[in-house]
Amino acid sequence: MLYVNNTQAQQAINIAQEQRPQYKRDEYLTTLLTLALNAAEQPAKLNTVNVHPHQQRTLIALDSDAIDLYWSMTSPDRETLAIPIKVPLFKGYIGKRALVTQQAFLNRFENITTLDQLASFTAVQGHDWPDTKILASNGLSVRPLANYEAMFGLVANGRVDYFPRSFIEVSSELIQVNNKALVIVPNIYISYPSAFYYFVTKRKPELADALYKGLEIMQKNGSFDALFMKYFSVDLKALPFESEGVIEIKLDNPYFKP
Questions:
Q1: Could you tell me the strand order of the sheet in which 247-250 lies?
Q2: For residue 40, what pLDDT band results from cuts at 50, 70 and 90?
Q3: How many separate domains does the chain show?
Q4: Is 0.70 surpassed by the pTM of this model?
Q5: What CATH number did the domain enclosing 223 receive?
Q6: Is residue 109 domain-resident?
Q7: pLDDT tens for residues 78-99?
Q8: How far apart, in whole angstroms, are the C-alpha atoms of residue 175 and residue 177?
Q9: Does residue 141 share a domain with residue 22?
Q10: Residue 149: inside a domain, yes or no?
Q11: By the 8 A CB rule, do 89 and 232 touch?
C-alpha cells in the first residue's frame, strides 16, 4: 500500500461502474483520474462499485455512502445532483457523433445534407441520456431504450435507422459488438456542444477540489493531452470523415452551459 507523507494511508474512492462491457474510454477515465489525483498530491485507492446502467439513478446514488464518483455527459439536472468537475474529459469529441447504421441502409444516407432531411429517420438513444433530449429538441426522431447493448441490435435488425455514437467511442464499440451488419455512415455526422465530466459526491468537496487541481496541472504540463492522444489518436484518424464532401450537421444544445 502506498502512503501519503509516509504516515497517512491513501484515501479510498468508490467509483460507479455500469454493468456493461468496459471499453478503452473507461480505462482512459480511470487512468486520468489516478494521474490527476497524483498530480494534486492526493493519491487514492480506486474501488469499483457495480451499478445499474441508469445514469440519472447513479448520480442520485452519489448521495449515499456507497459511491463517491461517477463520470457522465453533463446536463443542468445532473449538475444539481453532484459536484461537476468542469474539465471536458474528452476535449469536445463527446459531442461529435458518427451515425452507426445497418450496412443495407447506407444508401438511405447518400443524399442527406440537412437536419430536416435527417429528421425523416429514427435514431435510438438511452432513455435517460442527455443526448436524447438534445436530438429531440432539434426535431430529430428518437426512440429511447433502457438497454445499451440492445441498441446495437435494434440498428442491426433494421428496427431503427441509426445510432449516434461519439468519435471516441464508436470504433471500440463496433469492435466489441462484432456485428458485420453495422457500419459508420461515411458522408455525414452530427455535432453539438457538450462535455463529459467527473461528478463527485457532495459529501466530499475536498475530493472535488483535489481532482480539479490535478486536472488543471495536467492540462498545463501537457500530460492531459498526451494521455488523450495515447488512447484515441488511432481511432480518431480511422474515422471516415477526412475526405472532401463530408457533411457536418450541427445541432443546438439548450441543455449545456460551459
A1: 163-166, 96-102, 182-191, 247-250
A2: very high
A3: 2
A4: yes
A5: 3.40.190.10
A6: yes
A7: 899 899 999 999 999 999 999 9
A8: 6
A9: no
A10: yes
A11: no
